[in-house]
Specification:
This protein is mostly helical. Among the domains are: about 5-35 and about 45-155, no CATH class; about 520-685, Orthogonal Bundle (Lysozyme). The chain contains 40 helices and no strands. Helix 3 runs antiparallel to helix 4, helix 17 packs antiparallel against helix 18 and helix 29 (about 480-490) runs antiparallel to helix 30 (about 495-505). The longest helix has about 35 residues, at about 40-75.
């Protein structure tokens, strides 16, 4: 990706904003927090004058950057050279040089390319230039030159690796090339067409053996790529081609493997066929697959890894079909087998049935490390207390154990920790400790060239390249530097990078950096306009935005959701009509004001639909209101709130709801307020 017409249009628009504010649209939202009245007298005027001069200088540089781009477009080398001299201290000078070379890249100006790569080796823009050069060289069969520019330690794109092995087999170490070609070839999916010349040469030189062809055929069938598998089967001899055809038939009709006499053969190819058949049969009828496994595992020698892999897959299929009896039987008849996901499913299934003895039993089967997570500490304590209440007997030892478990969980700053604290009637534990960051290190990190480029790219709206520069700049930082980078990003109003950096440093107790009060002016205003009859408040909106995007205003998901609160354009259009919020195109969702307004209005509509229950609204925001309504119908008002949340069918939604609730508490704390994890109507709900 280069800075093209769209990015350049944003850049031009941003110039208009920065000419007024000296900041990008995101930073401009934050600028309102500090007014000149915060300081007094001459010091304030001097600070204001200094900031004004810096803003004007930045605007002037950005205008020259735009002019340089125009000079490149019209091949005005004289003006370009003049502008480069004037911008010699500008952080984005490398990008001007990159654009200039890119404009003439088809001519392959090797001297310019070499000078650029030497000058910017190891930087984001340097590596991006290398990728562009390799694509140009590979596409034009310039393979001798390709070997000069390819770096196997940095370049992992399959297309470029294909060019590389082709170049290496023509002009380099052929044996090394063929080892790499075999690695590229032996996969269960089609490879890019750029691999075809190298594959063809490898095959002509005898690289494709029967066993290699069979292996790729097996991988392709297992991945469900039957057309590719059929193509690969043409490389096999007559007898093996028949077995390959049988493998594909078993994939389509896995019950064929129940004909044991046909498939228990000394030929090891049948073992591969049976392995695929067992997995496929598991997804259709796990009980039959379990029985078949017993027969075949007695005849074929499967490794422990193969055994565990299959049993984990089989257990998952029992769980997907809600076959608790079959799953328990599998565990009991498979000594030594343990799978965390399976065990957690059994705990949740027992919770759904309110079988507290089984809840405790399955928690006790977990390894010590997992059993001491705050989640399972809470649920074991809950299970003990429920059993004591049902028995109506006093058991001081068991009661003390439950209280001890709750106390351990309550020490955590988490959803379960807050639940445990509520149960004990004690204050929440926040453990808020600012990261040990010095002003000197802040200045040092902020002045790094990569950080300077990231800041300026962000300021002109080039968010993709800004993120790449940031990632390169922070990739090899120490823990202390990463924490400092988080502080720098926060000062820039680049909150998702602030969060990312403090998490990468594994310092979780700096709540200012982990839970920034980002866009709080907008959030407070929007939440206030919703009225007092709704459960929507500033803390809930901040929690949802924090969970959805880490406050990345330009975030885009694979599903097409956009912006701070990750709205789909279709949802935004429908919501805008009801809310009366101006909205013309999906691009508007990258505007924080528009996104927060529409996201808050949509969240509020979900609260109204689900009786002002925030965790149901959060579940609906993530999984859709129709699914939540179906889940409520399935449970038929039989479950307390905590069991209902813990047994949400989608693990992503379950985690989402728990995070939004706990983040709301933390945002109240960050705002100097005190808020409960659950409101009265939520805590008393039967779902």
């Amino acid at each position: 990706m280069s800075i093209g017409s769209t990015g350049f249009a944003i850049f031009s628009a941003v110039l208009l904003v920065t000419s007024l504010s000296g900041a990008n649209p995101v930073q401009a939202q934050q600028a309102n927090k500090t007014s000149p009245s915060a300081a007094t007298g001459g010091a304030a005027r001097k600070a204001e004058s200094k900031d004004t001069k810096a803003a004007k200088a930045a605007v002037a540089q950005r205008e020259k950057l735009q002019e340089a781009r125009q000079a490149i477009a019209r091949n005005d080398q004289r003006r370009l050279n003049q502008l480069k001299k004037e911008l010699k201290d500008y952080p984005l000078l490398p990008y001007i040089e990159y654009w200039a070379i890119g404009k003439n890249l088809s001519r392959l100006p090797y001297d310019d390319i070499d000078a650029f790569l030497e000058k910017y080796d190891g930087t984001a823009i340097g590596d991006w230039m290398r990728v562009r050069v390799l694509r140009e060289l590979g596409g034009r069969d310039r393979f001798k030159a390709y070997l000069k520019y390819y770096d196997p330690e940095k370049i992992r794109r399959t297309q470029l690796r294909c060019y590389y092995v082709d170049a290496l087999s023509r002009h380099g170490d052929k044996q090394q090339a063929y080892a790499l070609i075999e690695e590229l070839w032996t996969v269960g999916a089609s490879q890019p067409k750029e691999c075809d010349p190298a594959f063809d040469r490898w095959i002509r030189d005898g690289g494709l053996t029967e066993d290699r062809a069979w292996k790729r055929h097996t991988l392709s069938v297992r991945a469900g790529n039957l057309d590719l598998a059929s193509y690969i089967a043409r490389q096999l001899d007559k007898d093996r081609a028949k077995r390959a055809d049988l493998m594909r038939s078993v994939y389509r009709k896995p019950e064929l493997i129940l004909d044991y006499d046909r498939f228990i053969q000394e030929n090891q190819d049948y073992r591969d066929i049976v392995t695929i058949g067992l997995r496929r049969l598991s997804s259709q009828d796990p009980e039959k697959s379990s029985q078949a496994w017993k027969r075949y595992s007695a005849s074929y020698l499967f490794s422990e890894d193969e055994r565990d892999e299959f049993l984990r897959y089989l257990a998952l299929q029992f769980a997907r079909k809600d076959d608790q009896q079959g799953l328990e039987a599998l565990i009991k008849t498979s000594p030594g087998f343990f799978d965390l996901r399976t065990s957690e499913w059994l705990i949740r299934q027992s919770l759904r049935e309110m079988d507290w003895a089984q809840v405790e039993f399955w928690i006790d089967q977990l390894p010590d490390t997992d059993r001491n997570w705050d989640r399972w500490l809470y649920w074991k304590a809950r299970a003990i207390n429920e059993q004591l209440a049902a028995s109506k007997k006093n058991n001081a030892e068991r009661s003390a154990l439950a209280r001890e478990l709750y106390q351990k969980a309550a020490n955590e700053r988490s959803y379960y920790g807050f639940l445990a604290s509520d149960t004990l009637g004690k204050d929440y534990s926040f453990v808020d400790r600012p990261a040990p960051i010095t002003p000197e290190l802040v200045d040092k990190v902020a002045a790094l060239p990569g950080m300077q480029r990231a800041e300026e790219l962000q300021a002109i709206g080039e968010f993709y390249h800004a993120r790449r520069e940031w990632d390169y700049a922070t990739e090899k930082m120490t823990t202390e530097e990463l924490m400092t980078a988080g502080k720098v990003a926060s000062a820039w109003g680049w909150y998702h990078k602030s969060i990312q950096s403090i998490l990468a440093a594994d310092y979780l107790d700096d709540l200012e950096l982990r839970f920034p009060l980002a866009f709080s002016d907008i959030v407070t205003d929007v939440a206030g306009r919703m009225g007092k009859k709704t459960a929507l408040d500033t803390y809930l909106v901040l929690a949802v935005a924090r969970q959805e995007s880490h406050f990345s205003h330009d975030a885009k998901s694979h599903a097409g959701a956009m912006g701070l609160m990750q709205l789909l354009p279709s949802t935004a259009r429908a919501t805008a009509r009801k809310a009366g919020v101006p909205y013309r195109r999906s691009w508007d969702l990258l505007n924080p004001n528009t996104n927060i307004s529409l996201g808050s209005y949509y969240l509020n509509s979900l609260l109204k639909r689900f009786d002002n229950n925030r965790f149901l609204a959060a579940a609906a925001y993530n999984a859709g209101p129709t699914r939540v309504s179906r889940w409520l119908k399935d449970t038929d008002k039989k479950l307390p709130f905590d069991v209902w949340i813990e047994t949400i069918p989608y693990s992503e939604t379950r985690k989402y709801v728990q995070n939004v609730l706990s983040y709301s508490v933390i945002y109240a704390y960050r705002s100097g307020d005190k808020a409960p994890l659950l409101r009265k109507n939520e805590a008393e709900a039967k779902l």
